Amino acid sequence: MKIADGEAALFAVKCFMAAMLAYWIALRIGLTRPYWAVTTSYIIAQPLAGAVLSKAVYRLIGTMLGATAAVALVPTFVNEPAVLSFALALWLGLCLYVSLLDRTPRAYIFLLAGYTASIIGFPSVAAPGSIFNTAILRVQEITIGILCGSLVHGVVFPRTVADRLLARIEAILADGERWSRDALSGARDAILDRERRRLAIDISELHLLSTHLPFDTARFLPRVRSVRALQDQISLLLPLASVVEDRLAELKARCGGVPDAVQALVDRTCTWLGDGVRHADRTETAADLIAEARTLEPEIEQGWVWRDMLLLNLLSRLAELVETHRDARQLGDQIRSPTSRALTPEVAMLLANASGRALHRDRGIAIRAALGTIATIVLGSAFWIGAAWPDGAGAVLIAGVCCALFGSADDPGGAIGAFLLGSVIGIATAAVYAYAILPRVTDFVTLAAVLAPALLLLGSMLARPPLTLITLGALLGFLNSVGLNATYEAGFAPFINGSIAQIIGTAFAVITVGLFQTLGADQAVARLLRAGFRDVARRAEGRSADKARWGSRMLDRVGLLAPRMKAAEEDPGKPLLDALNDLRTGVVAGDLDTLSKIATPEERALISASLAGVGRHYRTLDPLAPIPPEESLLADIDRAVDAFARDTEPERRRQGLVLLTSLRRNLFPAAPAYAGAPA
């Protein structure tokens, strides 16, 4: 999300106001470590008010869970520092594993529960008698930071999630209509392909924004179910548009071109997707286009040819594309409507069938990150305890926190390295403040004034995603070292020892994630593709009945693939195109499985043979060495086509031929035109 200079400046001012308010309150009530409250106010800061409130709630819950875990673990292993360190490592690893599987803002609860126990527990290893007081103070000071941050960001010129969501919905719908027009007109190029695949990332952004809606401060809040229904429809746009584009290209290349009547319908659809789709009569126009597409469908009779099958498939999918765009626009109107009553009968049905968004989850990566974090803490603790390093607890906990925060990235070493650079900058700045500026400060107002330049600059940088990691390291390094305690302490030895421990702990995390957790963009791409292959196989085997949830999970992987392909410095067009083709294949396979329940015995047997071949192909498919499907699968599909062409029930014949044509084109795009079933 791009942030303008003015918005970044306002965000920095609000962060500074929240931090100073939290610091003042912590001082007034006599808390001993008020810098925790200040740090928390920055950690929960988000440009959107609803995101701040949701993160604040999750952070508070996670902090309480982590404090409870620390209070339970430290007294239990009070005389065994090595065992206690291992127990804290296991707790952090478990919490990290759960948070990585969640992949929603709610995951912040588990992440906080993990490293809060470390922050409280490791410094208490040498002084376990104060664990309860430390935990209580930690919760109190974090609560103050949360309340101050939530108050300022939610009241002072708030940027609401609702406004951002509505703006993104309008942009996404307009982009989707433009991309569908381009698909129908044949204006395909590499730039357009990359833009289309951005739709998968847009859907993920809608999902993320919608999770913050219950916490938003806007007077009018769109309903989450309406957003979920819209996500379902947007998820269909890419596969449908790419199918229509493929059929038009095939007709023009190998089947003598597109009939004039069909081309005229395509042109009218393009016009409707331009200006007409936004007009009040769009529903009536859409109904006319859908009806005309159905009228133009060729009858599959004796002597039918491959061109007829392609036309039938094209017109069927074109009607579905029109219907999906119509439904998406109606849902956009529903989201803006202040009433919960469905605006149209179509919207009522879509809301009733809205599904929760299913996200990709990689248990292998989650286990790897958790084990890597545990290993980092265990190795660090062995050195700290064995060397009797007085400040070693600080190094171990910062290493564990870095692994937890960044260990799931494809290149965690780079992320932690940026954080380390920011920490060094923050500590150096803190040294200047602590020994050249703060000794001359005698009151709170002057303190706020001298802190303002540094914190305002860091706050504006925090609002810019490319600078987030360095800025976060600088903020934590500065605030934790500068000496924002209840009373000023000028001791140089504690400052330098604590700073060295923080730098060594962060650097140690860079080394250990390189050993245990670094995956690489190419391996991450391969894992995502393999997960998609497994899901297509499961769909072909009849083990994924919910098409909407299955499709959203597949499209979520497309969104995850795009940045990883860029990181691997490869052209994302081909792999992402393959992922969309896999999505289309899985959808068709599931629909064929449903159709087989009402098919004739012969048709059912041929569908089963075809789907079994699809399942075998995707079960054995290797993204690093892909192979085409076996020719026997093409023969099975053609035999099924021949059986459905002889079916005397019109609608079943139509559905079977539409689906089998799609399956044939998805799996064998270079195969010769169908010329009859093999002997």
Report on the structure:
The chain is an all-alpha fold. The chain has 3 domains: 5-159 and 362-516, no CATH class; 161-352, Four Helix Bundle (Hemerythrin (Met), subunit A); 521-570 and 584-667, no CATH class. Helices cover 76% and strands 0% of the residues. It has helices spanning 5-28, 35-43, 49-76, 81-102, 107-121, 131-155, 161-185, 190-212, 224-254, 260-274, 282-296, 306-336, 345-352, 363-387, 392-406, 412-437, 444-462, 468-481, 492-516, 521-540, 547-567, 573-596, 601-620, 631-645, 650-667. Helix 7 (161-185) packs antiparallel against helix 12 and helix 16 (412-437) runs antiparallel to helix 19. It starts with a helix and ends in a 12-residue tail after the last helix. The mean pLDDT is 83.
pLDDT averaged residue by residue: 83
Poorly predicted parts: none
Category by helix and strand content: mainly alpha
Figure out the total of helices.
25
Helix content: over 70%
Provide the β-strand percentage band. Answer: under 5%
Oligomeric status: single chain
Largest sheet, strands/sense/barrel = none
Topology order in helix (H) and strand (E) letters: HHHHHHHHHHHHHHHHHHHHHHHHH
N-C termini distance:
58 Å
Search tags:
single chain, 25 helices, Four Helix Bundle (Hemerythrin (Met), subunit A), 76% helix, 679 residues, mainly alpha, 0% strand, 3 domains, elongated
Short description:
The chain is mainly alpha-helical and 679 residues long.
Task: Draw up the topology in text.
Blueprint (H helix, E strand, L loop, with lengths): L4 H24 L6 H9 L5 H28 L4 H22 L4 H15 L9 H25 L5 H25 L4 H23 L11 H31 L5 H15 L7 H15 L9 H31 L8 H8 L10 H25 L4 H15 L5 H26 L6 H19 L5 H14 L10 H25 L4 H20 L6 H21 L5 H24 L4 H20 L10 H15 L4 H18 L12
Helix pairs in contact: 1-2, 1-6, 1-17, 2-6, 2-18, 3-4, 3-5, 3-6, 4-5, 4-14, 5-15, 7-8, 7-9, 7-10, 7-12, 8-9, 8-21, 9-12, 9-21, 9-22, 10-11, 10-12, 11-12, 12-25, 14-15, 14-19, 15-19, 16-18, 16-19, 17-18, 20-21, 20-22, 20-23, 21-22, 22-23, 22-25, 23-24, 24-25
